[in-house]
Design goal:
By secondary structure, the protein is an alpha/beta fold. The chain has a single domain, classed as Phosphoglycerate mutase-like (Rossmann fold). The chain is 31% helix and 18% strand. It is built from six helices and six strands; from the N terminus they run E-H-E-H-E-H-H-H-E-H-E-E. Helix 1 packs across helix 2 and helix 5 crosses helix 6. This is Histidine phosphatase family protein. InterPro entries: His_Pase_superF_clade-1, His_PPase_superfam, PGM_Phosphatase.
Length: 212
């Protein structure tokens, strides 16, 4: 008999970041009030689903996004370093169109978009995300699980699952704030990838800070 297991990759909600820096793995970046509402909406989307396990990146914004779902399901949020944001040499800086064109301290890291040269290699991100998905799938066999992570790791995991090349244009990622990317498996075979945006009504107009 075939077992159907779903691993949901939930991106965290909006972060309080008034200086609009690329915060990456820096500590003490928490959800904004809007981000907290996004987390509640995302948690509500899972109502009625058979959630067997709940994991999160150790960063504050991810743990805070997982909290409403933990309250609804009664599950413990377990932290897994493999779900953490990708490493980035530009974290702590304001990264915008101007700095990408004129700031030498930024430009010197941008010589190879295929790796990428400015941060953790896509291959390493894919390896750790695929590993955690496999482990969580095994634990939640025949049921569903949620892993709270970040935009680039989730998008890289999706591209790896769909057997697409890992390098890509960052402005074309389909992984908005508090969005859910759902990987459905029959036994160990991926049969579908779903995507939904439970908090779409709260999205702000204008560009987002990358690498979040």
């Amino acid at each position: 008999m075939t077992a159907t297991t779903v691993v949901h990759l939930l991106r965290h909600g909006e972060v309080d970041n008034p200086d609009r820096i690329l915060y990456g793995r820096l500590p003490d970046f928490h959800l904004s009030e809007t981000g907290e509402r996004m987390a509640e909406l995302a948690a509500g989307w899972f109502d009625g689903r058979d959630i067997a396990a709940l994991y999160s990146s150790p960063l504050e914004r991810a743990r805070e996004t997982a909290a409403p779902l933990a309250e609804r399901t009664g599950l413990e949020v377990r932290l897994d370093d493999r779900l953490i944001e990708s490493a980035n040499k530009l974290e702590g800086r304001q990264v915008n169109g101007r700095s990408l064109r004129t700031d030498p301290s930024v430009l010197r890291h941008l010589y190879n978009p295929l790796k990428p040269s400015w941060g953790e290699p896509y291959g390493l991100i894919a390896a750790r995300m695929v590993a955690v998905v496999k482990a969580v799938r095994k634990e939640a066999w025949g049921r569903e699980a949620v892993c709270v992570s970040h935009q680039l790791p989730i998008w890289t995991a999706r591209r790896a699952a769909e057997r697409r090349r890992l390098w890509h244009r960052p402005d074309r990622r389909q992984c908005n704030l508090a969005s859910v990317t759902s990987l459905t498996f029959e036994d160990q075979r991926l049969v579908s990838v779903g995507y939904t945006e439970p908090a779409a009504a709260l999205y702000r107009a204008g560009p987002q800070v990358p690498g979040a």
